[in-house]
Amino acid sequence: MPSAKRASAPSSYRRKGRPMFREDGSLPTIEPGDDFGACAEIIASEWEEEFAFFPFVDADVVEEAALARFMPMGLHLETESAKHDFLLPKLHLERCLLDPRTVRITKTARRESRRYMLSVNRGFRNVLASCERQHGSDWLVGDLVVSMIALHEQRAVRRAGFISVELWLCKDDGPALVAGEIGYLIGSAYASLTGYSVVSGAGTVQLAALGRLLAAVGVKVWDLGMEIDYKIALGARILSRSRFMPILSRAYADTSRSGALGLLGVSRLVPTRELIDGGGAAIGPSLEEPR
């Protein structure tokens, strides 16, 4: 994350004859009315900065940033007289992308999967709150949380559909929510934005089962964000901007992924071993909760 000092807002916003401007020592500033997609192209072609600055956070601008291949993040600043949340859209220099059909399943994940069940959109607010508790609010600021909730509730009519994935531990007294993540679906691409786990190894099982599910419903690109060892272990490739941005553009424009729309519904609880061993095919068409 950039420091608060470095990311502080310019004292005035002014047009420069093209989208966005940058003052010495500050982040590129996207102004209201600017095209986020054009700004992403300028950043990719001219700068090695990963973050940009936008003066407020709401559901519409979060969606615009996501559609432009930024990952939406936030920054909270306080002065003696005011406090405010800003959007810090992140365009990684390198990003981890994975074809869900090639996800690597370890022997441990397959063995442990007998203990769990997976669901989609059964506990968005609970998962989001758990992510906040585990990781803090360094970038997951209040206005961004509110915007994510709105985008989730409006996911059926949004181009960027925010969803939750939940992992449940099977117990004698009923399933217990022990891991999950928040992400968004655009076209035939799915992006993992933030996640949490409270049981050792549960996150690995969740990712393995999710990969199988994404492949089964027709997701072609799994955007895992910044490089971390566990993502490489899953099979992700590290791609530069010149490679990952066109891949995401094509996936976002893909309208042939009707099966992926099942991820926008509220699912039943599916045994993760069934997902992993069946490659997701056993539950793909019947993901949604029976009505």
Polypeptide structure, described:
Residues 3-15 and 281-286 have low confidence and may be disordered. Helices cover 31% and strands 21% of the residues. The protein has two domains: 1-91, no CATH class; 95-286, 3-Layer(aba) Sandwich (Aminopeptidase). Helix 2 (59-67) crosses helix 5 and helix 6 packs across helix 9 (272-278). The chain has 291 residues and is α+β, with helices and mostly antiparallel strands. The strands form two sheets. It has an eight-stranded mixed beta sheet, with helices on both faces. Strands 1-2 form a two-stranded antiparallel ribbon.
Query: What about the largest sheet?
Result: 8 strands, mixed
Task: Write down the secondary-structure element order.
Answer: HHEEEHEHHEEEHEHEHEH
Q: What would you call the quaternary organization?
A: single chain
Using the alpha-carbon principal axes, give the shape. Answer: globular
Which residues form runs of ≥5 with pLDDT under 50? 3-15, 281-286
Alpha-carbon distance between the two ends:
44 Å
| Total count of helical runs of at least 4 residues | 9
Strand proportion? 15-25%
Q: At the fourth CATH level, what is the homologous superfamily of the largest domain? A: Leucyl/phenylalanyl-tRNA-protein transferase, C-terminal domain
Strand order of the largest sheet: 9-3-8-7-6-5-4-10
Proportion of helical residues: 25-40%
Overall SS class:
alpha+beta
What is the tally of beta strands?
Answer: 10
CATH topology of the largest domain: Aminopeptidase
Which CATH class of the largest domain is shown?
A: Alpha Beta
Average pLDDT for all residues: 89
